[in-house]
Here is the input.
Amino acid sequence: MTGEIRFIDTAPDLEAFCHEIADAGWVALDTEFIREKTYYPRLCLIQLATDTALACIDPMALPDLGPLAELLHDPSVTKVVHAAHQDLEILLQETGQVPVPVFDTQVAASLLGYGDQIGYARLVEAVLGRSLEKGHARTDWSLRPLEPEQLTYAADDVRYLAEAYPIMVRTLRDLGRLAWLEEDFRALGEPDRYRPDPDAAWLRVKGYQHLKPQQLAVLRHLAAWRERQAMSRDLPRRWVLQDDVLLELARRQPGDMRALGKVRGLDERTLGRLGNDLLSLIREGAGLPRGDWPRLPDRRTLEPEQEALVDVAMGILRHQARSNEISPAAIAARRDVEAVVCGDRESDLLHGWRARLAGDAIRAWLGGDIRLRVREGRLVLDQGAG
Here is the structure.
């Protein structure tokens, strides 16, 4: 790939560049954004690369992203992204759709034996043998003008991605694993993955696990209200109310302004502005019937016999992972194995490539269709229970 970085900040240049790469078949993609002072991320830079072109696009200078949106939503162009969630979230926000199809190199790396949730710098080193500059990791990308070294740093996030992608695809194809990723990548294109859900916001409040069920009902009301406030005012959640204040309100459930004023973290200004709303929310949450109280996420309590089965099943998982030169954590966590032992057929371990690598073997062993042997100090899975 050419080392030249094209900086695009005009509509004609954007249209020309998107037209130039439209037939490439794939494009490496990354974004730079800030969200410290807002609820929604503020898009500051978009980096694109193919095997012949490299550009940094300035969305802050452009009237719209129409030509780019057309490219990103073209089903014939694969969008190559590393750890895609945040990039896809902000592009859904900016263009109204999730860019698909997607190839997430972090997900793919797990099937190549590079470990679970590998970082971009480590991936580049593993695949290409190159070390990346880390000096601008905390840059405020909203400030203009951008310095040449900042653009170089940003462009490197797609320059080497575009070099690594063909190598990874070729290796996955040689291993017969390329098709294994289709289900995971298809799931990345679901818009609901990226849209906020105020009714589930209480699950993000640090320390919610220590509340009682009726207190959780109050917390759910408060957290949903805070989420909607943050969304409508485009403010960080903590700027509306801090997590520790929500927890204290849910725990103490003050019934009047005097009691509310004793809650640490609520100053007079906040009380005057939000006090009546908070009291109303607390009353509503506290008054819910027991059947409407939220429940903590399931925590399985296993019998001793089940614990023993999980221990053995984890051994099968590690055996299968080692045999395929993949990190066990990339296939499943212990809770996933527990789910299979408890009969949960919806576990991710029983679907897609995870089932092919380990889930099917664990289920077959649980069903008595395979047995475990030790030969020359190694675990062996034998078909048939005879």
